[in-house]
Amino acid sequence: MPMNIPTTPIKPVTLSHRIVEIIRQAITSGDLGPGDRIVELRLAKQLGVGNTAVREALFELERAGLVTRIPNKGSFITKMTWEDAQQIFRIRKELESLAVELALEHISATGLDLLQGFVDGMKTAAETSDFERFYQNDLEFHRTLWRLSQNRYLASSLETLVVPLFAFLLIRTRLDYRVDLLGSAHHHHQLLDTIRNGHGVKDRMIASLDSSEFFWEKAERTLAGPPAE
């Protein structure tokens, strides 16, 4: 499947990281989907970079769970079954609830402002049906909470578990149902208010995650067939 990628060669600074972001963008925009193959030589030629930089980027994506490397066959965008999603989602609820509790011990006004910015970004994106922008703000909201826990092992575990879920369940169910996106933004706003108050945060986090059930129900149907248009 062809990707919408820049034709100008990438500058050598943080080269592999920039390639990672290009592939991530292709996944979140729907240009690449579960099971699609990434051919290293072809991608290197398209980007005007060396094979080594592409290979390093694919290793990083593999560590993040976004790419699966199959010996003698190549690299593929990771495919996830509904059972995989359910199992990971259950673990996520436990780990992310712990992360938000730990974050309360370290959170500052700056951290709260950062979280508020992502919630505002989600709301704006929902109002314009900009699913890609909504996804980015949603993911960064959660990543910020993980970092604020100041437990690097917990943050790393959540990064490995949750990013593939966002990429292959949330993004694959792309629909322009504004009310659903607005509802999700509202739940994140409620969660942030609870964090500010400092009471009942774990329960609110679980409720916020449970509120995304419409995504999982849609994902269950979508994973049985072609991605939603």
Q: Give the helix tally.
A: 10
Q: Trace the largest sheet across and list its strands.
A: 1-3-2
Radius of gyration: 18 Å
Question: What is the H-and-E element order?
Answer: HEHHEEHHHHHHH
Average pLDDT number: 80
Question: How would you describe this structure to a colleague?
Answer:
The chain is mostly helical and 229 residues long. It has helices at 15-28, 40-47, 51-63, 82-104, 109-127, 131-148, 152-170, 178-197, 201-210, 213-222; strands at residues 37-38, 67-70, 74-77. The longest helix is centred in the middle third of the chain and has 23 residues, at 82-104. The chain is elongated and about 55 Å long.
Describe how the helices and strands are arranged:
Blueprint: H1 15-28, E1 37-38, H2 40-47, H3 51-63, E2 67-70, E3 74-77, H4 82-104, H5 109-127, H6 131-148, H7 152-170, H8 178-197, H9 201-210, H10 213-222
Antiparallel strand pairs: 1-3, 2-3
Helix pairs in contact: 1-3, 2-3, 4-6, 4-7, 4-9, 5-6, 5-8, 6-7, 8-9
Gist of the model:
The protein has ten helices and three strands. With 229 residues, the protein is mainly alpha-helical.
